Amino acid sequence: MPGTSGISRRSLFAGSAAGTAAALLPTSAATAESVTKSVASGASYRAAYHFTVPDQWKNDPQRPVWIDGEYHYYYLYNADYFTGIVGTAWRLATTKDLVSFADRGVAVPKDTTPNGDLWSGSAVVDIGDTAGFGAGAVIVIVTMSPGGGTAHQEQFLYYSTDGGLTFSNYGTDPVLPNPGVADFRDPKVIRDEDRGRWVMALAENDKIGFYHSDDLKSWSYVNGFVHDGIGVLECPDLFRVTAGDGTVKWVLGVSANGKTSGLPNTYAYWTGSFDGSAFTADASAPQWLDHGWDWYAAVTFEKRDASGAVDAAVRYAIGWVNNWDYADTTPTIDCDGFNGTDSIVREITLEKASDNTYYLASRPVAGLDSYVARTVNLGDVTVDGTKVLDYTGISYEVATEITWSQLTGAGLQLRRSPGGGRHIDAGIYADYAFLNRRNTVNADTSGKWQESHTPFDPSAGTVKLRILVDRTSVEMFVDDGRYVHTSQVFPYLLDTRLALFTIGGSAVFRNTVIREFSV
Description:
By secondary structure, the chain is mainly beta. The protein has 3 helices and 34 strands. The chain has a 6-stranded antiparallel β-sheet with strand order 23-34-25-30-31-32, with no helix packed on it. Strands 24-33-26-27-28-29 form a 6-stranded antiparallel β-sheet, with no helix packed on it. It has a 5-stranded mixed β-sheet with strand order 4-3-2-1-20. Strand 13 and strand 14 (248-255) form a beta hairpin.
């Protein structure tokens, strides 16, 4: 469920996008002509290897579930985006490898009951027939707002008996009514097998409420986790994961806006313990699963093998590559007829830090390796200043390990313009790693949210970078995914160059490899 930006949820779902891409057009007449020609010739802003909505609008991902040997990925979708009619349904895509997705159309339609459209929630497979719709029925618990507005958020139930392809409503009454609060949304439901019941985590402003149910139809409040200072908590997440050393941790995650406090506007999480009713955090301050500006409403889900067995040591994650501050501002609307792109699916693991605390590390899903269409191996490249490479491309992955003896900063200029004036910078400087989109086209007209930072120890003398570049996004994984930065960008289609740079010394970019994908 969206929006801590303060902008009306309803206005953002309206189809008032006509002309918004005009703000992203080039100022130079020559550049404008080049871009116009490239669009006319069939060039596209649609991502080459990231999930995008087929048409119109998408926002929040809904946690994928494993059904009949494949993942069912639901997401919020508005078929009426261009006409200005508001409200979202749940659209479905299926995938076996989490890279290539097949569209299955709308699974849970909007406006078929007096309760209106559907917001965020979660789907579960009711293997034990606890709800009475049959063993293996797919149950969706979802927020709806009868009568509209934010003061009427309640939780409703839909069910499917055809493997999650289509759903029917379980009456028109809520299974969890609103107790009289403004924020009461985004139910995340998990099965507590140890205690034989269902558990729901619910977003309630600065609190995540926990609820129990035996049958998914009746819920009772049992406890809550409160944290303020990072805006309204949204899209809660709750799961258990095992580290490589055998340590088991519970993780409570939320989408939150910490920008006013100098923190990200993405996915905050706490490691800790959960006794089935209450979550106890290891530390009061959250960690963040992404430090860029555009990885919101993210969900995690189980990693399963072909037989359906769960890997307790790995979790998958996917996020919406956008931000409610500028959700409607994208050239994909005019060029390609859609607005909605997701991050690459990531594999999440629990790792032990040098201070004996635990954190979540991220890496691109392994299935991406099966779609490599071209590899450019540059080997070791010595750089002192700026070195423009012969390579040109719009969508690719670049991986390198930068090493040095004395240096102030180093990194890559991605999607660099022919003249060198436009580019996205990614790398390290002094005691931080960074991703900077200031010198390319992007939707943040405020100019405040251009460069994201994460801590870095310059005494290490080395840093590993793995960067996924696509037509409208950059995802940078630092040191085996200890930190990740995701930001939405809209480089001109003629900006295809790639450069390496150093500041205050020389460095060797070791094992530098570029890969392109065909999905």
